Amino acid sequence: xxxxxxxxxxxxxxxxxxxxxxxxxxxxxxxxxxxxxxxxxxxxxxxxxxxxxxxxxxxxxxxxxxxxxxxxxxxxxxxxxxxxxxxxxxxxxxxxxxxxxxxxxxxxxxxxxxxxxxxxxxxxxxxxxxxxx
Length: 133
What we know:
Blueprint: H1 8-29, E1 37-41, E2 44-48, H2 60-74, H3 78-96, H4 102-115, H5 117-132
Antiparallel strand pairs: 1-2
Helix pairs in contact: 2-3, 2-5, 3-4, 4-5
């Protein structure tokens, strides 16, 4: 049986990239409001506002399927892999719902963290995107 776990160096690099993306998203969320320039000339008032936003859309279903596939490939115990698949599908359903319940998501995240750190880290961007909206 070959071990397909991520090498320490690769894991550190992926985690660094993940954290860099999160920090850049946080910086976008906390940018100051663009300054409004107005120039008054007699009775005429002109306002100019320039706002630029970057949106990254994620297809949650594809990402969840990819995580499930990774788990199935790397988890030797098929019962654990099936349980992980069930939990991730519950997570997908909850995140896609109109108002996701944090208590359900939190329980799934705690289970996932105990199951696999790598799978947990793969799910984080999905959660961040869901709660960013």
